[in-house]
Amino acid sequence: MLTISELASYAGVTVRAVRHYHAKGLLPEPERDHSGYRRYDAGAVVELIKIRTLAEAGVPLARVRELLQADEEEFAAAVADIDRRLQAEIQDRQRHRERIARLTSGDNLALPPEVVEFLDRLRALGIDERIVKVERDGWIPLAAHSPERVPEWIARKRDQIAGPHLIDFYLSLSQALDRTDDDPRLIELADKLAAYITQMADERGEDYVDDADIEPLFVTLMDTLAFDTAPPARRLIELLKKRGWSGWTKLERVDPPRGAVSKSR
Q1: CATH number of 4-103
Q2: DSSP-derived secondary structure for 147-179
Q3: Domain residues of the chain, as ranges?
Q4: Given Cys at both, which of 34, 67, 211, 224 links 207, Cβ 3.0 to 4.6 Å?
Q5: Angle at alpha carbon of residue 125, lines to 169 and 232, rounded to 5°
Q6: What percent of the chain is modeled with pLDDT above 70?
């Protein structure tokens, strides 16, 4: 007859596991001998090994008792059912692994391929990574909000960066990231941005500049993302408004304050 420690050792489990199987009703708990110890026979070893084997195969403990009591046909059917469940779990975990792997791809996690391509193009042109992050963080909610319009918007972006004006602005903004709000070079940058927007609006219409049709609350959210990443952007918006344009995510033409000139602070 075996003690609980000897039983656990023969079956390749811990004493704690044996007690757990007792508590679950999977392994009958023998009476104590005159010394107060539980004693187990060879049958307990066999049963415990079966329980361990089923548990290690991924069978839920709730079903172990059912399998131990099943006849050959019932056992085969139950094992087939468990195998199907395990295959489904494996496939599900594989999908999770693929999603986790995409985390290492950065932009690919939450953005369509055409947007990722656009961001990579900005990097290749030498745009500061913080500016790229502003673009990326804006595209993530935008693509989730209106995925059907992404091809249209990204086509416009590609068209815009094909010319020198927008790239020149991006590069100038990159240089402005570490400047203070009172840096006079922000005035020059605001002039440059206002001139570019006005030229595009006059040549191609204001819809070309912006027709995103985004709700005001969503616009505020995306503006905040930009301002938190590139604080000079907030000052640029103030300067831009004096030059006839309002907004960051959603641009709108406004009447500049009376007396405002391109060099106004």
Answers
A1: 1.10.1660.10
A2: GGGHHHHHHHHHHHHHSHHHHHHHHHHHHHTT-
A3: 4-103, 107-253
A4: 211
A5: 35
A6: 88
pTM of the model: 0.50
How many helical (H) and strand (E) elements, i.e. helices and strands, does the chain have?
13, 2
Give the torsion sign (CA, 50, 56, 60, 61): positive
Helix (H, G, I), strand (E, B) or coil at 143: helix
Mean pLDDT, rounded, for 45-64 = 86
How far apart CA 248 and CA 98 sit, in angstroms, is 35
Task: Lowest mean pLDDT of 19-23, 66-70, 217-221, 255-259, name the range.
Answer: 255-259
pLDDT in tens, 218-262: 778 777 877 777 777 788 888 888 988 887 777 788 876 655 544
CA distance 25 to 91: 32
Total number of residues shown for the chain: 265
